[in-house]
DNA sequence: AAAAAAT
């Protein structure tokens, strides 16, 4: 399959080509036609599957044809860096459409707030936001979302985990019920299912074989005591040809010490956690993407969605809390068909997590012992070490009930280990229901809209391929695709966008 | 048992 089979607006197609995309990914193959047909969508898809383009292209297609003067799409996502990255993707794919976008997220200085306020007041075709900051702006009254055509929830499960359900409902209640909603989630637990019933209308469900990391990731597990992790890490870095590495740790407090220890060894390393200033976060990520340093030490703030090209290695300094996050973390490498290596440290106390991961990815992973020159190795024996990872919360023998383990720990340079108290996340339920049957009526009402002149001209460039492929697919140029378009035909059209339409206002491009 | 997200 090729992109021209979607019969996207020529300006959108140009954007696809400009971004170097040639072949639609599985999620794109399924989601794009459904979204173009005006359907709500609930899609199971991880990052790294081309998910962003899967929802951006239909939105851009809509903008290219309809040229609405109001904001067309609201995209909600869990982390600030992801919002920024999606905004950059809009710039790329939407370049020829001239679509404007704003990224709205917290953490910046007060001038950022003012900048966001100005941009929101002026309006943009697409708003990409983390929920908290958007609500803060919405409460001040200048955010105009009452006419949006698309609501997109990216990483919906992650947002639920982060307690955003109430925030999202609060936002959704300000949106028109006449809209198309696309929900993307890496997992589909009941929580998401229930939630989706509230905000989606007769969604088409798209399921891909998720939870399986790419085959071209070389996954390695090392059995290692906490106290030996740093030594093993340095040993491995010495052996491997590390071009670019992300090292994940589950605790913010580990980041600094690991960073310093590696720097002491002469490595080019920087750290990132939510505790750092937003300026620093963005600078670090930009420099890492630009290969200005070799190793990024990060918490799970980096585990989802962040796209770094040519990342050769991912190290899990400790196991993530949720098995899903393992897949997300290692999915940072081997992107876009390249290969990569994922090394995971397994200590004596977190072996249950390995079992969960293996169940999830339906594959057993080889466990390598700590090399002798580093120190003694824990054995892999999850029955023996069944520990606090156990789901039921009850610790069978109470604390310190792991015979032999503590004493078996060698005394080596201490690896950074720390615990910090965490506030409990808010439970969320009982939120207002939203859309209903009007949605259906509206879709039938939508009329077909003739192509704007610019589109016809633009079509010249790609016309041949479009027609050719349509024929191959056994449909004429006015066939299926046109029917789809008729269904989602135009409303609220007010002629072409003025020349000075705002171009991505708030976010300076990361890769210049 | 953590992290993230509005201030």
In words, what does this structure look like?
The chain has helices spanning 10-18, 26-36, 51-66, 80-93, 110-122, 131-138, 156-161, 165-172, 190-199, 229-239, 252-264, 278-289, 323-330, 351-361, 405-408, 438-445, 453-472, 480-487; strands at residues 41-44, 73-76, 101-104, 126-129, 150-153, 180-185, 204-207, 217-223, 245-248, 269-272, 295-298, 313-316, 340-346, 367-368. It has a seven-stranded parallel beta sheet, with helices on both faces. Strands 10-11-9-12-13-8-14 form a seven-stranded parallel beta sheet, with helices on both faces. The protein is an alpha/beta fold. It binds one DNA strand of 7 nucleotides through helix 6 and helix 7.
Q: What is the CATH domain class of the largest domain?
A: Alpha Beta
As a percent range, the share of helical residues equals: 25-40%
Major pleated sheet:
7 strands, parallel
Please, how many helices?
18
Using the 3D structure, state the CATH architecture of the largest domain: 3-Layer(aba) Sandwich
Structural class: alpha/beta
Tell me the total number of β-strands: 14
Low-confidence stretches: 388-512
Q: Give the CATH topology of the largest domain.
A: Rossmann fold
Percent of sequence in beta strands: 5-15%
> Strand order of the main beta sheet, please?
3-4-2-5-6-1-7
What's the rounded overall pLDDT mean?
A: 79
Name of the CATH homologous superfamily of the largest domain: P-loop containing nucleotide triphosphate hydrolases
Q: What is the CA-atom radius of gyration, in angstroms?
A: 24 Å
Organism: Solirubrum puertoriconensis
Keywords: ATP-binding, Helicase, Hydrolase, Nucleotide-binding
Region (Disordered): 366-512
Biased composition (Basic residues): 483-495
């Amino acid at each position: 399959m090729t992109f021209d089979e979607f019969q996207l607006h020529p300006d959108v197609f140009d954007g696809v080509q400009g971004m170097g995309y040639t072949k639609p990914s599985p999620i794109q193959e399924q989601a794009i036609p459904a979204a173009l047909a005006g359907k709500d969508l609930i899609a199971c898809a991880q990052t790294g599957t081309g998910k962003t383009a899967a929802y951006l292209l239909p939105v851009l297609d809509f903008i290219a044809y309809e040229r609405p003067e109001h904001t067309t799409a609201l995209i909600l996502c869990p982390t600030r860096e992801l919002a920024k990255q999606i905004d950059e993707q809009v710039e790329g794919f939407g370049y020829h459409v001239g679509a404007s976008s704003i990224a709205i997220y917290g953490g910046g200085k007060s001038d950022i707030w003012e900048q966001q306020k100005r941009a929101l007041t002026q309006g943009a075709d697409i708003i990409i936001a983390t929920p908290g900051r958007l609500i803060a702006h919405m409460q001040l009254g200048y955010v105009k979302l009452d006419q949006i055509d698309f609501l997109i929830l990216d990483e919906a499960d992650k947002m639920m985990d982060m307690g955003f359900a109430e925030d999202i409902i609060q936002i959704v209640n300000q949106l028109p019920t006449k809209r198309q909603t696309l929900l993307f989630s890496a997992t589909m637990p009941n929580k998401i299912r229930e939630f989706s019933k509230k905000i989606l209308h007769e969604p088409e469900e798209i399921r891909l074989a998720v939870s399986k990391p790419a085959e071209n990731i070389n996954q390695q597990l090392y059995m290692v005591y906490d106290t030996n992790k740093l030594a093993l890490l340095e040993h491995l870095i010495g052996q491997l040809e590390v071009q670019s590495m992300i090292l994940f740790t589950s605790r913010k407090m580990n980041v600094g010490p690991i960073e310093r220890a590696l720097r002491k060894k002469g490595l080019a390393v920087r750290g990132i956690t939510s505790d750092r200033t937003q300026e620093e976060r963005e600078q670090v990520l930009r420099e890492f993407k630009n290969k200005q340093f070799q190793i990024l030490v990060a918490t799970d703030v980096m585990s989802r969605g962040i796209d770094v090209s040519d990342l050769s290695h991912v190290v899990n300094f400790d196991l993530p809390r949720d098995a899903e996050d393992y897949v997300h973390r290692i999915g940072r490498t081997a992107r876009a068909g390249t290969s990569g290596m994922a090394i995971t440290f397994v200590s004596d106390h977190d072996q249950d997590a390995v079992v969960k991961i293996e169940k999830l990815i339906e594959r057993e992973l080889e466990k390598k012992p700590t090399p002798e020159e580093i120190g003694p190795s824990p054995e892999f024996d999850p029955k023996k070490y069944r520990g606090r990872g156990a789901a039921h919360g009850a610790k069978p023998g109470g604390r310190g009930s792991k015979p032999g383990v503590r004493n078996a720990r060698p005394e080596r340079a201490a690896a950074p280990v720390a615990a910090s108290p965490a506030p409990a996340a808010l439970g969320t339920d009982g939120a207002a229901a939203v859309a209903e049957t009007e949605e259906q009526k509206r879709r039938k009402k939508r009329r077909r809209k003739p192509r704007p002149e610019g589109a016809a001209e633009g079509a010249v460039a790609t016309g041949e391929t479009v027609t050719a492929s349509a024929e191959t697919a056994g449909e004429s140029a006015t066939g299926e695709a046109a029917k789809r378009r008729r269904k989602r035909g135009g409303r609220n059209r007010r002629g072409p966008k003025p020349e000075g339409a705002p171009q991505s206002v708030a976010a300076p491009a990361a890769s210049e």
